[in-house]
Design goal:
two-stranded antiparallel sheet, 11 helices, about 250 residues, globular, about 80% helix
Length: about 250
Amino acid sequence: MTSDHLLLAAVGFLAQIVDGALGMAFGLISTTFMLSLGIAPASASAAVHTAEIVTAAVAGTSHALNRNIDWGLFLRLALAGALGGALGAYVLSNVDGSAIRPFVAAYLLIMGLLILMRGLRSDGTEDARTVFAPPLGLVGGFLDAVGGGGWGPLVTSTLIGSGRAPRLVIGSVSLAEFFVTMAIAGTFFAELGASHLEHVAALIAGGVLAAPLAGFVVKKAQPRLLLLAVGLLVTGLALRELVRAF
């Protein structure tokens, strides 16, 4: 295993710990690191989502066992998110990687800044409303595929507002992510073949080690500190990628 693969394994572990606590950031953290290594956007997103099939399954099971799931919310998010994700993966697979790289980095920068703003303006413990779950899932799945991440930041951040316990939102979004990533990874495989698989094993190795902790971490972590840390990390890496792109 090369140093890059060891780094990806460490990134996968860190990203999954954060994702388990916040319901977001595995894709964002992993993709921004992969872009910084010079991997093309489509290949990076394909590798991340293929790895997430495994990590999302383990994390979703952990949340289910810890009773962190709102099953009605989960179903609406999973169906709409899978549709949006497949469409986004198809679009990204048919666009030149060098041309879209700055746009992907800009999207990641926006997501990083939004996470930072949320961390500064709230303590991460608000309740959540679920009225617009299907359209939110559709848009979230599309942007997640195109940006290599963003399902959690967009969907979880939007839902956390009023009405239900945050842990149910985080758990439901995490379990729905399994079906979204299945749709995205399947579309990438059909469009790109297996060229991205060399990066997948390292991400899975790190992510699977951390994924069983998801249900426990979501009960114990301090959301504000993690939000600020993730926001700073994603923003910094996205800025670096934008500078390199131009």
